[in-house]
């Protein structure tokens, strides 16, 4: 009986073995599909295929194919693809996680939020305003002698204060933990909500104005702190973006608060693929809305028409910028963003214009549709002295946009460690690439920002004053050493003719 039962199980065991068998060709096909997707959708591919990109793609491809050829199971094959993706060292090129559950046949009805029934605190919580993570300085300046903490970063945005370097030099230090709208203190949202609620019942239509008011308060708070540093006559300002994972375009705007110089934003490119069209459409919608402003001057109308024509031409030219990028797996070529890169000009990190004079056209809506940083015109030059930007391996995306523009256009000195190397990332919400057999999914960046020297921001920002980790040194000692390096640099700058 026992033998018969065992024999009866053999067909089922064989069936399961077949079902679970390792299919090498499926993984090789998935790898080919991933490379094709990168050729068509990855904005940084031509950069990493150049000697300047620091990645040997032919060698990476050869290694990945070899690992797939010797893989013995799905886990080994999956690891080979993961190693291929991580080999680019682009933080935005990453796994999108497992395939989501198929659509639920009959999901429970989800009621809309009735904002008219919420008080300001509840409404702001529902909108995502909450105390920030990473509020503390990335190095413990709070614990050093001579430090005066002026804002804790909780009750008011931006932990900040005055620190004293070993030689007695006084520096203003301000922490920017992240660049995004919800980083305004919850109190800023509560105030904006309360002010609108006092005028009548709230609804969905009030959300955008409240967010805009809270975002403006975020910038005003930063400007006020910089003005305070100026009044206290500190020798320099240290902006701490260590561990700042990024956020949004405020990383570009905020640079204008740290200088009276004319700051010109970085050139931006999008991948020349259909997924770029929604970004161009979004810009066209904003520009056409600005055309409806009744007090638009002839100069403003002309600039709007030129901007609209530029974005229409970009959208129409997407297909023409396509090219065969399969060469990247066989050779390296010098970085030429306007060569065979599958990139198309998208204006600047600030919109169509890289710069406009303050109060351009006498109409902020028109100016900010062309040059987004016009939103902070009233706050330009809140500080106009020496600036240092603290970065580390956790400074990414919008934090890199801020740091590179501060270095390139403001003349700030970078201190600390090299940034993450995430670069631009995404300007449209394109779905992840899903491989046909394994169904692994990957996020593929669709935009690129160029630095003043023409290099790709995805290379990360390198410090002018490196403060590397030292064996046996704690964070507090490293913070003290960093302040000493900044003070020494200030002395050296002052001694120059």
From TrEMBL:
Q: Which keywords does UniProt give here?
A: Signal
Q: Could you tell me one molecular function GO term of this UniProt entry?
A: endopeptidase activity
The keyword Transmembrane helix is annotated on this UniProt entry: no
Q: Any signal peptide, and if so, which residues?
A: 1-21
Cellular component GO terms held in the UniProt record: outer membrane-bounded periplasmic space
Name a Pfam family for this protein.
Peptidase_S41
Q: Where is the Tail specific protease domain?
A: 380-466
State the InterPro entries in the record.
Answer: ClpP/crotonase-like_dom_sf (IPR029045), Tail-specific_protease (IPR005151)
Task: Give the GO biological process terms.
Answer: proteolysis; signal transduction
Q: What is this protein called?
A: Tail specific protease domain-containing protein
